[in-house]
């Protein structure tokens, strides 16, 4: 279940491997992030949106403890998640 975000995340974490195991771990983290955002009240999760990409990137970096800075990435993710769930563009259905 590769998403648009998989290559973006791999690139941001400097991962060159084509390992199916690594890609599956990344995809599972992407799915977990989307679920977490939905639980917080974010209903518009567009994989092309810069803030959603940033939120997912921060979440995955925290999950993978990228550069031994999981806490920093988790705090940044939580702050961005709160902003997204309060913003009208993200917490109401389009249309």
Structure notes:
The protein is mostly helical and 95 residues long. Helices cover 68% and strands 0% of the residues. The chain contains 5 helices and no strands. It has helices spanning 4-12, 20-40, 50-63, 70-86, 88-91. α1 (4-12) packs across α3, α2 packs across α3 (50-63) and α3 runs antiparallel to α4. The longest helix is centred in the first third of the chain and has 21 residues, at 20-40. The model has no long low-confidence stretch (mean pLDDT 92).
Q: Which SSEs are present, and which pair or pack?
A:
Layout: H1 4-12, H2 20-40, H3 50-63, H4 70-86, H5 88-91
Record keyword descriptors for this entry:
mainly alpha; 0% strand; globular
Quick structural summary:
This protein is mainly α.
The rounded distance between the terminal residues' Cα atoms is: 27 Å
The overall strand count is 0
**Shape field:** globular
- List the total number of helices: 5
Secondary-structure element string:
HHHHH
What do the pLDDT scores average to? Answer: 92
The fraction of residues in strands falls at under 5%
């Amino acid at each position: 279940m590769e998403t648009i975000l998989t290559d973006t995340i791999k690139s941001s974490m400097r991962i060159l491997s084509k390992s199916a195991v690594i890609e599956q771990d990344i995809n599972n983290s992407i799915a977990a992030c989307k679920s977490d955002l939905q639980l917080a009240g974010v209903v518009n999760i567009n994989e092309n949106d810069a803030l959603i990409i940033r939120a997912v990137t921060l979440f995955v970096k925290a999950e993978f403890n990228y550069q031994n800075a999981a806490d920093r990435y988790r705090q940044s993710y939580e702050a961005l998640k709160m902003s997204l769930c309060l913003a009208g563009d993200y917490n109401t259905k389009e249309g």
